[in-house]
Amino acid sequence: MTRTFLAAEDVSACRLPLKEAATLPPVAYTDEGIWERERTRVLARGWLPLARVDQVPGAGDYLSADLAGEPVMVVRGDDGTVRVLSRVCRHRSALVAEGHGCRKLFTCPYHAWSYDTKGNLVRAPLMEGAEGFDPAGLGLREIRSEIWEGFVMATLDEEAPAFAPQVSGLADYFENYRLGDFHVARTLDYSHDWNWKVLAENFMEAYHHIATHSATLEPGFHARDSQVPDTDQPWSILHMPAADREAPQPPVPGLEDWQLRDLVAAIAFPGLLLAVQGPFVAWYQMVPLAPGRLDLKIHLCFPYWMQGMEEYGAIVDGAEASMRAVHEEDIAANDLVWTGLKAPLSRAGRLSPLEKSIWQMNQWWLDQMGF
Ligand SMILES: [Fe+2]
């Protein structure tokens, strides 16, 4: 079945105060019609992270991405500016680039139209006979973007409110961590057969530490201690205090003791997901592809100053091992959720008061969807 609405009683149940609220109903995750509406209203109109600027350090460096169905690339121009450009050729719509690399020209493999690193059409062979043909108006389309704390954020919506003011409270919370000074040290690639909200919700609650991560995260970060500040802005913060308040940590300039010990997850709706602990950031980059399909890159990020440390390689290896272990546990849980959501008798459930981040995102999602 495809639909473009949710049942009124399901919306009302989600809209109740947290202590009484229900989850979104299963169709919000599984239905093709809801997905199409979501792609237009949530993913195309929202701001999504496509790269970090450190991933395209030199002129001509580019990284392909998918922005709500639009094939795009993040490119550093020969003028040093990072832009987001559509990868769709202005001639017959073939893709002019895939993957990542470094180029002076993006030449379409179909008829060799060539674009420079700013997206200008600089060569269109054998077009001499075309009347009124003006290359000036046929550059690769530039997508609206903003650099926020080193993240290249982009939206397909020309009218969307600017990103930075929407997340000013989030920026204040993370000010000491200096997120702009981080770089991607390693990337772990995954593909999952779930709706993207299954991943986002799993990321934003510590309640499941008691079962899914009973041997990994729960001993260090008790589910019952997790806290979520109130906010009416389009983001949520999940603060997971460390169980061992006395755990010694090597000091990091600018960070307070609790910031070294505690784990903090943050989401800027709909798709900037960060888990932060002292001088470590795990950036979960989701690419929703279908109602039940997403690509996920887990980027392990560290501040530049750590690169010079003798044990840096071992630190990155250690982060990879623990992130993989925890994510394997989450994969197992999310696979079960996805199977259950698709079941004929599946209905909305009750949220725990520990799942305030999910509740916060649900309110925002219902607003964006016009429900
Ligand atoms: Fe988890």
Structural account:
It is built from nine helices and 16 strands. The two termini are 19 Å apart. The chain is globular and about 70 Å long. It has helices at residues 8-15, 27-30, 32-43, 163-166, 168-173, 196-203, 257-261, 312-341, 356-369; strands at 48-52, 61-67, 70-76, 82-86, 100-102, 105-107, 114-116, 121-123, 142-148, 151-155, 182-192, 235-240, 263-268, 272-277, 280-290, 293-303. The protein is α+β, with helices and mostly antiparallel strands and 371 residues long. The longest helix is centred in the last third of the chain and has 30 residues, at 312-341.
Question: In terms of topology, how is this protein built?
Answer:
Elements (H helix, E strand, L loop, with lengths): L7 H8 L11 H4 L1 H12 L4 E5 L8 E7 L2 E7 L5 E5 L13 E3 L2 E3 L6 E3 L4 E3 L18 E7 L2 E5 L7 H4 L1 H6 L8 E11 L3 H8 L31 E6 L16 H5 L1 E6 L3 E6 L2 E11 L2 E11 L8 H30 L14 H14 L2
Antiparallel strand pairs: 1-10, 2-3, 2-5, 3-4, 4-9, 6-7, 7-8, 9-10, 11-16, 12-13, 13-14, 14-15, 15-16
The protein binds fe (ii) ion (FE2).
The site of fe (ii) ion has 5 residues, from loops.
